[in-house]
Amino acid sequence: MSRMATFGNDLYTGKRSFDFIGQFKYWMITSLVLVLLVLGGLAVRGLNMGIEFTGGSDFRIAGVANTDNFAERATDVVRDEGGEAAAPTVTLIGADVVRVQTQQLDERRTQDVTEGLANTFGVSTTDVSASVIGPSWGESVSRQALQALIVFLVLVALMLSVYFRTWKMSLAAMIALAHDVLITVGIYSIVGFEITPATMIGFLTILSYSLYDTVVVFDKVRENTAEAVATGRRTYSEATNHAINQTLVRSINTSVVALLPVACILVVGFWLLGPGTLLDLSLALFIGIAFGTYSSIFIAAPLLAWMREREPGMKQLRERVEARTQGTAPPVTGPQAVLAAAAPTSTGATTGGARAAAGSAAQVFGAGIPGMISPGTAGSGGGATALAERNGEAAADDANAGAPVEYTATGRPIHPSMRRAEPPRGRKGRGSKDRDKVVDRAPGKADKADKDGGQGLDKEQQDER
């Protein structure tokens, strides 16, 4: 368990990563091959629709003691009593119930088949139940299921478009959804499983589960890509790939937890109960959940990244990331760049060069920077005053030539006259907040305090002395 936790933590923090986006073409080729196979199966074999959709007669024999060769025995009875046109489907439900499905028979043939089955399996006619199902009921169920599916897809597409604020996420989710349902239906066609109303319910449940897993991945994709666009440190594909890795363990754990009980129901339905509603529902759920997890990881998110990378904004983001990686990012333009060049790089730097660079920056960016004047100011009105100001600032610059340059939080240099004064050594103010402030006292009091050995100071200052 600790290894799994460490593995998941490494995936979430980015220490370990799988390149899902980089292998996108291989995932798409795999999915296209599967889709072509299931489409071929649907075209060649079609779907094995249940009696609820096609109509017919259904016989169930309960309490069968001897089930040896039950299929052949029941088939012989139906062909003898029901006519050669009838093509029965015989299955065993549980341990002692035989189910026989035939084409729709009239009342006389239904009675003949009931008596023949009772005699063949050694039970009374009361243990044989016969029912006739018309095709109109199956058509009504199919129509209602199709209407519900269309309404569901429209509402889901609208919800995703509004929630994620982009139609491309909605389109990618719909493609993954169609992929899951198509492959599940194709497997039913290739293997020959019967389509029943319970199977239709399983198909609709697959839609919900697949969509749920995809939305969880997309929510993490939206969070990571928003940060990538804001910082310019990752491309859209890199942020999407990191989101898939972050949700990978969660997707696997959720799928395993969901598949385990469904697998138990599938085994119980197949080995103990036989064909029926429970088996039909669990089979559709098992196939759909497995492929729903696959599509949310390998289809939906990589397809979204492929579509978004073709947008002009994402192309510019990729160029920014590549320039940052190669160290060829465009230089910063603004007062900070010029002032950084004007700052002295050694104690031996002359102030004349700094003043010249500052004058150049003032010409380029204006006089909006503290301590920076334009060279042409002295030549305009009030030239004497401007010249005096320039000479005073030059003198201040010469006096502070050896002092380190301080900058504000926005990157602008602090003028020497605005720098924070350092307190005299050994002299501190009251409290921790005033520790950096200079203690000002009147000359007389200061002399008296020094003369008296600190008697003029308060108690705290005496303790400090």
From TrEMBL:
Keyword rRNA-binding: no
Record protein name field: Protein-export membrane protein SecF
Key word Iron present: no
Keywords of this entry: Cell membrane, Membrane, Protein transport, Translocation, Transmembrane, Transmembrane helix, Transport
Membrane topology term: Multi-pass membrane protein
Transmembrane feature ranges: 24-44, 145-164, 171-191, 197-218, 256-273, 285-306
Lineage summary: Bacteria, Bacillati, Actinomycetota, Actinomycetes, Micrococcales
Localization in the cell: Cell membrane
Record Pfam families: Sec_GG, SecD_SecF_C
Entry's family note: Belongs to the SecD/SecF family. SecF subfamily.
